Structures are given as structure tokens and as C-alpha cells.
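To assess whether ligand presence alters the predicted conformation, the chain was also submitted together with WTA. Input:
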Amino acid sequence: MSKNIDHLMHEDRRFPPPAAFAECAVARPELFERAAEDRLQFWADQAKSLVSWHTPFTRVLDWSNPPFATWFDDGTLNVAANCLDRHIDAGLGDRVAFYFEGEPGDRRAVTYGQLTDEVKRMANALESLGVTAGDRVAIYLPHIPEAAAAMLACARIGAPHSVVFGGFSAESLRSRIDDAEATIVITADGGNRKGKVLPLKPIVDAALRATDEQPAQSSVKHVVVVQRCGNEIEWMDERDHWWHELRDEAKPDHVALGFAAEHPLFILYTSGTTGKPKGILHTTGGYLTQAAFTHRNVFDLKPESDVYWCTADVGWITGHSYVVYGPLANGATSVMYEGTPDTPHTGRWWEIVERYGVTQLYTAPTAIRTFMKIGRAVPNEFDLSSLRLLGSVGEPINPEAWMWYHEVIGGGRAPIVDTWWQTETGAIMISALPGITTLKPGSAQSPIPGIAIDIVDDNGTPISTYDGGLLTVTQPWPSMLRGIWGDPGRFIETYWQKFGSAYFAGDGARRDSDGDVWLLGRVDDVMNVSGHRLSTAEIESALVSNPMVAEAAVVGAADDVTGQAVVAFVIIKSSHADGGSPADQSAQLRAHVAQQIGAIARPAKVYLVPELPKTRSGKIMRRLLRDVAEGRPIGDTTTLTDPAILSVINAQVH
Ligand code: WTA
């Protein structure tokens, strides 16, 4: 962290708002003033102007039982009707909701009218399969329009969805299905990834099959399958249904009922500091308000003319809030691309920007750094002049990557909004506002209007110097998580125990002399690999589930492209010492983690070591292993039982 701080202290480049954004400058400072005058009234105004209510709310926030907040709780609404029906009523049925582009090159423009029809039919279909309000539906799909339709069909009937990223393994999918007790899984035969078909239905079948570790019976009664790739799949007549058959047989009309503003909208699992992922729970009224507000203001959305593209997969929170709910609530036209950025060629994204005339691009620093490595010649081949705003999310963006993004992709003209937020916060919390903020490469800058944060020391005392501290949110916000599914104790312990009524985000941060916020990375045992959260404990427990492993320690080591890379230190059981060369054994263990959790968790390196550095109380000193992995001088080892072990490990690594 100290290297970061030194580096950032020297960033003095400044980018004032370009003239093209002058009108925002007129419209938006007022937002800060109004929010500062009366924060709750400000959010109530946003909820009234951006969301349509079945029953208007009269109460704004109830914070009488912290950390359990309710927002707009006597109002009722239907999230799907907000994202669809009201745009149809406003005569926008022919507006494109998604310009979809499949990885093999197939293209579809899905209008609001078509999406509404699909969602209404699938809402009827889900009801005919017995789904009622409150039932959980797992969604395990590629990044295709049916994923948005599936989420909205669930929202329409009040059935909370749990989207599981299509790269997770059968085991990960099963544990999420079991935790939420989902009764339906919506999947596809397969998706397209890197020029190949990634089968999904077979993974669902494996997840639902009884094994030694899994109880015979899962909660799942039905599996709905989108036909995407035509790959061969097994079929269980009594359990499996084709999406297109259900849709075609379903009634086209469906009345959207109003649900209470605190009715659950979705659960989304994210890694924490233990082996078990947390099911982050979001509800409807507050979530939709802040998703729509931030999408409109942070991206300066002009729904009539913009073509907005957020590259995140629906499997992550960014896909929920800024591919589906925020953009659709605002009646935006978006691009949705199924595949990887380098398939079939490294200019694929830029070709898409040129083809659709994308105006806003929202992506992650890891993607930008990958493009930097490839070089500017590739994007320079395409016309990117339609881009007028760029966004970044998922991890700190280093100033070099910021400058490259600004110059090469944004032509030096498009402002960059670096947006800090989390699965738990539901929507953007800290970001520059276009047209107002003078940009500083690498800083997320200021909390958005209506959000209150502080940087504190370990005791919760606000930090008055420019030193790094812990980021907290000091006032409840509309799109805040409402809990961890089935585990209120863990909710309190993880986020609230440390600082009472202030939310502890798990991130380090500092303010500079202008008061701008710089994010310094996670302060807990959560890694950030390519903008995705992974927990050291989860990967360690996957490693020790392999019979040859006695003990494992995992750290996130700095990586030029992925931000952090997973590095594992493993002790092999003496009974397996002759079970292959160290290179073979590490390769097996890397594959084992990918099979247990998913390819995103596959360690970049697995080192086989004789011992791990531990304190006298038996705690593994991951900090020292990180020093080793990053090739730094090793920190203080005096608390170790056996300081010599580090030189042994170090010699092995370097
Ligand atoms: C990190 C993604 C620095 C941070 C929306 C946070 C960031 C975690 C930024 C949440 C940013 C996200 N600058 N760090 N602009 N955005 N992070 O839940 O560590 O997948 O706690 O949500 O990503 O990751 P999550």
C-alpha cells in the first residue's frame, strides 16, 4: 500500500470539464446543493422523478434499527414495469434496448417492445411452473438478452433472482443454489467463449446430480434452457423445459403487480473473508432509485440519442445495475456483447464501438491494461470518435492506464469517470461527475450527491492527515445491501461491528489536499483479480480439499494486467511426496481450483513449500508471503515461530 501512496502523491495532471459538457455544469451542481441541504428529501425527489410507483411512498428512511434500513417502505412498485411497460406506454416500444452481438458474429437489435413481450410471456411461464412471489430463481446464462429477460421476468413476479456467473463451476453453482434454496434454474445449452462453445446445461446437470458430497435432492424442481449454441445436451423430460417452447406457449399478457419497496429483488453471491460466499440481498425501491440516478448522472445519459455500452457480464453486480436495471429504467439503448475482447481478433471491441456509434463505454482497468499491452495501433484502426464519456470500475485505475484510456480510446476529449462501489453498495457511491469535476488520473474523487463517507483509523476516528485509512459510509443509502441471505449475524459482523452505525467497506483509502478520494485496495483477505473479488480463504479451502494437500496459504500478488494475481503456497502431504514432479503437482492443483470454483480462481502460481510462515499462535502471515511473491524485501519476521522458513520459501520462488 505504501508504494501506492508514494506514487499517487506525485500525480499532478488535471483535466477540467470539456466545453461539450457545459450544460451538465448548469444542471448538476444544484444536485450537490440540494443533497447537502436535505439528504432524505433529495433521495425522495429522485425516487419520485426516476421511478414510477404503484402506490406512492410517504416514508423515506427508517434507520431506527441499524444496520437494518428500510427506504420508501410504504410505497409499492414493479421493477420490470419500470424498466419496460412504462416506456411502451410512453410510445417508445420501437426504441432499441439492446444491440446484441454474439461472439460468432450474430447480431440482434432487441427493442423495448420485443423485450417487454418476452418478459411478460416468461413471467407467465414461470408462474405456470409454480413460481410465486418470494421464491428464488437461479440464473446461469451467457451474456445474452435472455439473461436480462430472465432477470426481469423474475422481478415482474416478485421472485428474487440469484444470477451465478457462467464461469463458475458445478460445485460453486450448487452451493449457491442450496444456500438460496432456489426452485428453478434458468440456463442455456451453452455460451460462446474464445471461439468455442462453453457448455452450461451439462454443468447445471452436474450441479444437481447427487454425489458423495452433495445431498441427493436439491431444491430445484425445474430447469429452463435457452437454446443458444445447439450443442448436444442431456434432457430430463420431467424437469427440463426449453425457454422458447415455454415462451411460445405462454399467454402474451401479464399484469405487473406492485410489490413493497422492501420486497427482495435479488441475491448476488460475493466472496468474503471466509470460504463461504455471502449472498448479498438487495430490495427494489431504493435499489432502483440509486441505480437509475447514478446511471443517468454519472454517465450523462441522453436516452434519446446515446448508445451506451457497459462491458460487464450480468453475472456481476456491474451487469445487474449498469447493464440491466439502471439503463432499462432510464430507457437507454445499450450494446450487449457475448464474448471475449480478443475473439476473433484483438480489435473486436473497437469494431463494435464503431459499428454502433457507442457514446459511453464503461469497463474495468484490467481490460484497459490488456489493450495497452497489445498497443494503440489496434484501436487506432477504428473510428472511435462517437465516444464522449468513458467509465472505469472494479479496481483502482493506475494513472498510466487512465492516461492511455483518455488519449487512445477517448481521443483526449472524453472525460473518464472512475466509479467506486461494491456488490454491497448496489450502485455507484464515489465518482467524478462529468461536466463538473476536474479530473485527476487515478482518483475516484468525491462521493456522489446524497452519499456520506469518511476515512477513519482502526478505532473509527476520522483521519485528518493525508495518510491512508479505512473507507466507511457514514449514512445509510438507498441501494445499500439489506443483509446477507440467511445470515443476519454475518451481516452485522462483516460490515457494522467495527464502526457501529457506519458501514465498513473493506477498502483502504486516503484523501489528498483537495479532499479527493484515492482508493488503495482491499484491507482484508479479499483479492481483486481482473476486477473480480476472490477470497483467499475460499481458494485455500479448495486447495486443501485435494487429497495431496496438507496446508495452503493464498495471497494476491501485484500483477501488471490483472491488478492482482492468485499465488498459492502449498505443503504437500508426505504420503504424496512421490506423486509426480513439483511442476506436475502444481499444474494439478491449479486445475483442481478451477474445477472447484471456476476458471477465474485458477492460481497464476502454486509453489510447493516445506512449511508456511506462522506466528506462535498459529496464524499464517500472509503479508510476508505477499512480500515473497512480489519480490520485495521481507518485512518484520520477529513474531514467527521459525523465521528461517522464509528464506527457504524465498529461495524456491526466486
Ligand atoms: C474494488 C464491483 C478502486 C474495491 C462494482 C471494492 C474499486 C471492490 C473501484 C468491489 C474503483 C471497485 N476504484 N477500487 N473505482 N471499484 N473497486 O463487489 O476493492 O465486485 O471493495 O463490485 O472492488 O467489488 P465488487
